[in-house]
Each structure stands twice: as C-alpha cells, then as structure tokens.
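Exam revision sheet. Question 4 asks you to relate a sequence to its structure. Input first:
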Amino acid sequence: MNQSEDYSVKSIIEKLFNSVVRKLENNDKLGAVEDLTEILKLNPHLEQIYYFRGNEYYDLNMFNEAIKDFEKVLLINPNNEEALTNLAACKRRCGDMKGAYHIYSKAIKMFPNNSFIWFNRGHIKRYLMDMNGARQDFEMAVKLGDNDSQEWVEKCSVFSNSKSSDELINIMPLNVEELINEGIKCENQGNWQLALDFYSRAVDLYPQIEKPSILK
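Answer key, structure tokens:
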C-alpha cells in the first residue's frame, strides 16, 4: 500500500468511526456494529475496534459474537484487562459458569488487586454452590476496598456447602438470569420439575420476561 492509499484508508476509517459515535448517540447499536465491522474489513488488526464491537454485541445480548471479539482482542493484546473481564461476563451470561470461573481465575492471577474480579468470581462460586470459596473471594474484594462485597461475606457465612441447591436458592435468591440458566441446566438433565420451579420463580419475579416454552 502506497502512502496515498494508506492516507485514504485512514480517512475512511475516521469517517466510519465518526459515524459509529453518531449512531451510538442515537442508540443505533446495530448500525454502530455495521460501521465497526466495515472498519475491521479495512484494518483487521485494530484492538480497540474489536473491543468496542464486543461491547456493542454484549449490549445487544449477542454474547457468542461478543466472545469472539473479546478473544480477538486478547490475541492482539493478552494483557487487556477489560477484554478479559468482559469475556468472563459473556461466558456467565451464556450460562457457561465453569468457563467464566476459569477466565476470572486467570484474570486474578494477572490482576490480583482488582476487587471487581474477586467480586465477580465470588458470584460464580456462589452460583456453583461453593459457598466457602465465594465467601473467601468476597472477603478479598472487601480487603481491596469493595464495600459492596461485605453483605455477601455475611450471607455466604451462614450457609454450609452441605445444603442442597434448592435450599440455598430459597435462602439466597438468584437473579432472573441465573434462575433461567439454572432452569435450562435442569431441563437438559431431564429434571423437569425442578426446571419448572426455576422458570416459574423467574416469571413470578419478572413477569415481563418471555416465558420459557415449558411454561407455555
């Protein structure tokens, strides 16, 4: 590519990025994704563009696409802390709690002073019913200055890992996303009654959500 062609590409990318900004100001996330994709066609090595597009995919609940973008960011820059934590969040939203746990654990090794990561891994452990491990992560988050974790230290302290999943959830309710994911897991395991219980609880708490097919 000669100098004039290089300048032309940079000019087009700048115009496209300005278009991205305008579309996001108008809450046109799909339009912004289209422009970000065009930028990457012109230059497939732009770390920040993959990161921006991944965030927009996440907001659009297009988690598989977001995962690919955050993974691409990490191929370009393995030390991108935000991309690593966002990748873990995507795994969590997809219901891949073990995958999220693995990524948060990797992030903790790389960024041990980030209270946000400890806090989030604590919730993954809570979801996996490792209450002692969750309490330890929340305690570390508190030590690092996250006061919001203190209530979770106290909640986890009153539970034993011998309690059943259903007992724990009755005491410490999951949010709607976790309830749906737990229902899906039970449904896949053939435990239809428990799946129905989880789905029903989610709909009772959040009647605006689309009912799972098992309730229709």
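Marking note for examiners. Confidence is low (pLDDT under 50) at residues 1-5.
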